[in-house]
Design goal:
Helices cover about 35% and strands about 15% of the residues. The protein has 18 helices and 18 strands. It starts with 7 loop residues before the first helix and ends with a helix. The mean pLDDT is about 95.
């Protein structure tokens, strides 16, 4: 008998064996070979063995006639509701000649953090959410697809020679441009599918989308964004216990404006790790008062965590992340312990497309590798140099040349979506084992709608201000963090609110009136 095959995460696990399954309960492995993974559930109706952690939602997927297609992992919402064992039919026939094209069209509307492994037309493919939030890396030589690096290898890590691991360990430098800590393991571009017969990638989105909306259609687009987002939040909160972080910024407030009328028992909270978070908590409390819901603060000064717990957290995190990497503050100071274990934590990621967070300069700069690579934070800005550019230039050029024409018109945004987000959320979310992090805004439909507004308007946050004012003007009344001065005493001062936010509110109302007039004229 040969030795039982096991992934490196299992071989390298430094803590008690009983803690392994808990630390990796939101991870998965899809493999050609049979690999023993303690505590994982096994699904083997396909030619590939699918194994998922004990808390990672997993359900079978069928076509319209009831034929088995494969599995969905994670949390996903379709147009008709949460995808689970009671709602697991794709409205397509497996016998359709253009099954895969129809599936990819259907996938545009799917929101959440998820992966589909499906077999049809003698082909097995893997598709994931639009930024790879579920985590998706693969090792072609060993025939393994998984959520993180050490689950994709069955022998010791071979350090990626492009990276300085001391910089990663000490500064949080990013494994970017689809690289991972291991030189054999590649991160899947989230808008490509992986063909499991030969572990090759093929882009499936965007296709012929035109990311443009005329001003007379702005209001209808705002309303479509709001309707879809509210439905997604409702479906997730109807089926899972949810905690929702609220800050003084724009993204969580936008999500709050979508959720304001939902009657679910959502726990709204703010972590306090520093003074900026203390301001976030004060503003967050004001926002929650406006929608008449409780707000909780989880303060590091009121949290207790033992040194041995921090050490265990760090060791589990390193194994789950794939290499030594700074542990999130909430874990080092214990505030994460305030959030009930296994709660779904709803984040506002991808709403920041509405403010074009990665479009710092005009289009003439978008094809310049040095400027773009610097923004990927492979190393901190003060350590960036020409050696970094030369090391990663071809990787960047290869990615950009593969962009379809519609995406080239939004190249800076797509760099943020496909490269930066997949290397940050795609690497960290699977490694956060206490809770399942998800964005209800993470769908290709919502991304497309968000990209439709001109860069200059998004950079000025006009769509964000408009949508919040249109959905929940009470939330618009509270100044954003960038409008308030640093003093906490100004939070709650209505006269100060009028002074710092009055012009923004009036400009937003005037703009909405002009858009309504355009709509009526049309």
């Amino acid at each position: 008998m040969g030795q039982e095959l096991q992934v490196e995460a299992h071989t390298k696990w430094p803590l008690a064996s009983r803690k392994f399954a808990k630390a990796f309960r939101y991870q998965y492995v899809i493999s050609e070979k049979d690999i023993h993974i303690p505590g994982f559930r096994r699904f083997d109706r396909l030619d590939f063995v699918v194994q998922t952690g004990e808390k990672l939602p997993t359900c079978e997927i069928f076509d319209e006639s009831g034929a088995f297609l494969g599995y969905m992992i994670g949390i996903a919402v379709s147009r008709v509701g949460l995808i689970d064992s009671a709602n697991n039919t794709i409205p397509i026939e497996a016998t359709d000649q253009d099954f895969w094209d129809k599936f990819e069209t259907w996938l545009v509307d799917i929101a959440g953090r998820y992966g589909f492994i499906l077999s049809c037309k003698k082909e097995t493919r893997f598709y994931c959410d639009p930024v790879g939030m579920i985590g998706a890396v693969y090792n072609k030589s060993d025939g393994i697809l998984s959520s993180s690096t050490l689950f994709a290898i069955v022998d010791p890590l071979r350090p990626n020679p492009k990276y300085n691991f001391d910089i990663v360990r000490n500064t949080g430098g990013k494994f970017s441009l689809f690289h991972t800590a291991d030189e054999r393991v590649r991160r899947l571009n989230p808008n490509f599918y992986l063909r499991l017969s030969n572990f090759s990638e093929t882009r499936h989105w965007p296709k012929a989308e035109i990311f443009q909306v005329e001003p007379e259609n702005y209001l209808a687009t705002y309303d479509e964004i709001s309707r879809i987002s509210r439905f997604n939040i409702d479906q997730i909160a109807s089926n899972f216990p949810v905690s929702f972080p609220v800050t003084g910024g724009q993204d969580s407030r936008l999500l709050l404006s979508f959720a304001k009328d939902l009657k679910h028992d959502i726990t709204y909270f703010t972590h306090i790790n520093n003074y900026a978070n203390r301001r976030d908590a004060a503003i967050g409390s004001e926002l929650c008062k406006k929608i008449q819901t409780p707000h909780h603060t989880y303060d590091k000064h009121e949290s207790e965590i033992k040194k041995w717990e921090i050490r265990e957290f760090q060791e589990a995190w390193n194994t789950s992340f794939g290499t030594e990497f700074p542990l999130p503050q909430e874990y080092t100071n214990g505030t994460i312990l305030k959030i009930p274990e296994a709660h779904v934590i709803m984040r506002a990621h991808q709403t920041d497309i509405l403010r074009a967070v990665y479009v710092f300069k005009s289009k003439q700069y978008w094809s310049k590798p040095a400027w773009q690579i610097k923004k990927l934070l492979i190393v901190p800005f003060n350590m960036f140099n020409n050696n970094i550019v030369e090391t990663f230039k071809q990787d960047f050029v290869n990615w950009q040349e593969n962009l379809p024409e519609p995406a080239k018109n939004k190249a800076a945004d797509f760099m943020f979506l496909e490269i930066y987000s997949s290397s940050t959320m795609g690497a960290s979310f699977p490694a956060l084992w206490r809770n399942f992090y998800i964005s209800p805004y993470n769908s290709r439909r919502l991304i497309s709608l968000s990209l439709s507004f001109p860069e200059e308007e998004r950079r000025a946050s006009k769509p964000v201000f408009d949508i919040i004012e249109r959905n929940c003007p009470e939330l618009s009344e509270i100044p954003f963090d960038f409008e308030l001065s640093a003093e906490l005493s100004n939070v709650g001062d209505v006269a100060h609110y009028d002074a710092v936010a009055g012009d923004r509110i009036q400009n937003t109302k005037s703009r909405l009136n002009r858009l309504a007039a355009l709509n009526n004229d049309g």
